[in-house]
Specification:
38% helix; single chain; Archaeosine Trna-guanine Transglycosylase, Chain: A, domain 4; five-stranded mixed β-barrel; 2 domains; globular; alpha+beta; 6 helices; 199 residues
Length: 199
């Protein structure tokens, strides 16, 4: 099994995520207890340490997944018990699952998605995030601890992943190109801050 690279399709074990998305250049810590998810971690450890993090559709089961997700590196995998692992994932790149195969354990053929050049769009998004974090110092400290990249886009991706928005809104942000994501999160953060200040 080959890990994701910049050209062509690859195969990755699938880790379904409930109520959360993993974004590129962001990290995620979760406790995994489903047998199929534990098998996906085992397969990832034997295949270069990468897997595909796919969000479950709202109201759906573990196999009812969105097809756009994030190729991730398993940064840490700690066994809490034979049936529970604490896992830390680092998002690498957005990908589309072209094919999902398997019964218990899912494996996906994935194709990389272009992020697009965020150009000048990240500036207003990061400024909106700074305004929001000025009112939420605990969140600022948390995001600083989660940041894995010096790129400005990593702030935008962390905001998309951790701010108080619905799972479906998060998935839509993940499906958007980098410039579109910057534009949407910048507008959304300012609207959220206005709502909090007037509510």
């Amino acid at each position: 099994m080959r890990a994701v690279d910049a050209v062509g399709s690859r195969l990755l074990p699938v880790l379904p995520l409930e109520d959360v998305c993993l974004f590129p250049a962001a990290s995620l810590v979760l406790v995994v207890s489903r047998p199929a998810s534990l098998h996906a971690l085992q397969l990832a450890s034997r295949a270069g340490g990468q897997l595909l993090a796919l969000a479950q559709k709202e109201g759906g089961g573990p196999r009812d997944l969105h097809l756009i997700g994030t190729a991730a590196e398993v940064r840490a995998d700690q066994s809490l018990s034979p049936l529970e692992h604490r896992v830390e994932l680092d998002g690498l790149s957005r990908v589309r699952a072209e094919t999902l195969v398997g019964v218990d354990l899912l494996v996906a053929e994935v194709v990389p998605l272009e992020e697009g050049d965020e150009g000048d769009e990240w500036g207003p998004a990061v400024e909106a995030l700074a305004r929001y974090l000025h009112s939420h110092s605990d969140l600022r400290v948390f995001l600083e601890q989660q940041r894995r990249s010096a790129e400005p886009m990593s702030w935008v991706n962390l905001a998309c992943q951790h701010l108080p928005i619905t799972a479906s809104a998060r998935q839509k942000l993940l499906e958007a190109s980098a410039p579109e994501r910057c534009h949407k999160i910048g507008r959304g953060l300012d609207a959220l801050l206005r709502k909090e200040q007037t509510g």
